[in-house]
Amino acid sequence: MQRSRLVALTLPAGLLLAATAMSAPRSTAPLRARPAATGDAPIRYAVAGTGNEARYRLHEKLVGMELPYDAVGATSAITGTIAFDAQGRLVPAESKLVINVTGLKSDKEKRDGYVQRRLLDTAEFPTVEFAPTSVRGLPAPLPTSGERSFQMVGNLTVKGVTRPTTWNVRAAFQGDQVTGNAYTTFTFDDFKIDQPHVPVILSLADTIRLEYDFALQRASAGTP
Questions:
Q1: Are 132 and 166 within 8 A, CB to CB?
Q2: What's 164's DSSP letter?
Q3: Following CA atoms 151, 152, 154, 159 in sequence, which dihedral angle do they give, to the nearest 10 degrees?
Q4: Rama region for 144: left / alpha / beta (φ>0; ψ in -120 to 50; rest)
Q5: Could you tell me which of 116, 112, 132, 135 has the C-alpha nearest to residue 124?
Q6: For residue 224, what pLDDT is reported?
Q7: What is the pTM of this model?
Q8: Helices (H) then strands (E): counts for the chain
Q9: Is 21 exposed, middle or buried (0-12, 13-18, 19+ CB in 10 A)?
Q10: Beta carbons within 8 Å of 214's beta carbon, 6+ residues apart
């Protein structure tokens, strides 16, 4: 009899304790903050320290030479970044390539001097700049492997004159690296450059081809 009464008294108390535990407020200890989402951060590809060269190519015929050939001047002094958003779309505000043309070298010193002083006036305009505005034919999101051909459109600034240009690009994607080549063409008149008229040059094409062999490296998160 006493045991039955003890059970009867204990059971309500147990139910009360259980109800109290269920209704007790949850711990107010601070929760660990989730890492900030980085999916919307731009994906930046910066010019690598090696593997980059920009060239001009111009068809000419010189006195004393039987056949015309391409005059080529090159430099590896290139800096800049190309940025894309998480969907693989170009971010123009964070994309620009800068070529320092004060060190352009060809196979003739006289030509180099003429290009520096007369054609490009590098003392006043030491750089050529390309500011991309859009990409055509590149799949989104950006590929991480394989080769792709596409076009990059943007504004090219030469000798203080800016004009829209379209570059034909062939790129190889491999993880965080992108390598390949690109080219565009323009005329002397496009950038208000006086076409050379010197006795040693018998003929000179009006179209200039600008080429770029590139090696880009994906920048780590947080890199400006």
A1: no
A2: E
A3: -90
A4: alpha
A5: 116
A6: 56
A7: 0.77
A8: 2, 11
A9: exposed
A10: 47, 51, 52, 171, 178, 179, 180, 181, 182
Over residues 7-39, the pLDDT tens digits come to 443 444 443 334 444 444 444 433 333 333 345
Structure tokens given for 129: 């700049």
Q: Tell me the two tokens of residue 70.
A: 């391409």
Would you state the structure tokens that stand for residue 39, as one six-digit string?
A: 């999916």
What are phi and psi for residue 200, nearest 5 degrees? Answer: -75, -20
| Separation of CA 62 from chain center | 38
Q: Give the number of other Cβ atoms within 10 Å of residue 182's Cβ.
A: 20
How far apart, in whole angstroms, are the C-alpha atoms of residue 100 and residue 103?
Answer: 7
Query: 2: exposed, middle or buried (C-beta count within 10 Å: 0-12, 13-18, 19+)?
Result: exposed
Q: Spell out the residues 6+ positions from residue 140 whose beta carbon is closer than 8 angstroms to its own.
A: 87, 88, 89
**How does pLDDT run across 71-94, given as a tens digit for each residue?**
899 999 999 999 999 898 999 999
Name the band, by pLDDT with cuts 50, 70 and 90, for residue 173. Answer: very high
